[in-house]
Amino acid sequence: MPASEPPISLNRDPMHTLLILLPGNPAIPGIYDTFTAACRAQLPGLETTVLAHRGQSDESRAVESEHCLEQVLAEHEKNILALITERRPQRVYLVGHSLGTAVAVALYDALAPHIDRLVLICPFLQPRGRNRLLLRLLSNDRFNQSFRGALRGLLGLERAALPLMRGRFKLGASAERVHNALIRDHFLDNFVGLTTDYLRFFGQHRPLDALDRLPLQHTLFISAPCDFWVPDALLDDLPPGARHRRLPDIEHGFCLHPTQCRAVAEASAVFLLAQDNG
To answer: 10 and 88 in contact (C-beta within 8 Å)?
Structure first.
């Protein structure tokens, strides 16, 4: 856990609500635009900001692979505190998707004085089942290098890669945006390197066990059916009293599909408005 900054003292703007989104992995630039636009439509006056993971911005500079998730946490904590200091919102909603939910939970103790509501979408809080097997394979250096080489080779064959991404991987109209990000310098290595660190990080920090420290009455968990990264057995371990909505028509990669973005935004807005008016 990164060291916490001292408490922020600020005069909040009573007309300003800020939603900060911590993305999944990879944090493809622009991939959440449809979702954040749908949130703003549901919650007038809302400002939204998506924070890219370290090494996954448009520049996609190379990052160290050793304990890279702790580096991601430290950078997000610093940037969130800077945003709150600069923009002085009356309310702050912290939204996490997939890996971003684990980041939100890990940072909550440090950010608690400034966060009013939490929405955790497709909460990847612990490797389990089939995804754990994949992560164990990625921890093998030989498999990891072969996987990166195969993926890099496929991405280099654009005529083959784009139809496969649109169809087999269900990326639809987002396929070109995802492809363009993954072929940038260092982006692919940063993405795979971050994924390779999951088993170590989750074994050490155990965000699933930290859920009791969240303000559960002000936290909403949103899940998708048949989710490779969030199997039902993991959702069964949510603490008693947790607010949980299963949306039957979304997928783990909801942000790739406009209809699913709107469904998740609507569920989030209903919860946030009820909380704020309660």
So the answer is: yes
Euclidean distance between CA atoms 255 and 198, whole angstroms? 22
Q: What are the beta bridge partners of residue 17?
A: 46, 91
Q: How many Å apart are CA 56 and CA 167, to the nearest integer?
A: 24
Give burial (CB, 10 Å; 0-12/13-18/19+) of 5. middle
CA–CA separation, 18 and 76 (whole Å): 16
Rounded Cα–Cα distance for residues 95 and 17 (Å): 13
The whole model's pTM is what? Answer: 0.91
SS3 per residue for the chain: CCCCCCCCCCCCEEEEEEEEEECCCCCCCCCCHHHHHHHHHHCCCEEEEECCCCCCCCCCCCCCCCCHHHHHHHHHHHHHHHHHHHHCEEEEEEEEECHHHHHHHHHHHHHHHHCCEEEEECCCCCCCCHHHHHHHHHCCHHHHHHHHHHHHHHHHCHHHHHHHHHHCCCCHHHHHHHHHHHCCCCHHHHHHHHHHCHHHHHHHHCHHHHHHHCCHHHEEEEECCCCCCCCHHHHCCCCCCCEEEECCCCCCCHHHCHHHHHHHHHHHHHHHHHHHHC
Per-chain mean pLDDT for the chain: 90
| Tokens 């496969």 belong to residue | 164
Radius of gyration of the chain (CA): 18
* pLDDT tens digits, one per residue of 54-86: 888 877 677 766 668 999 999 999 999 999 999
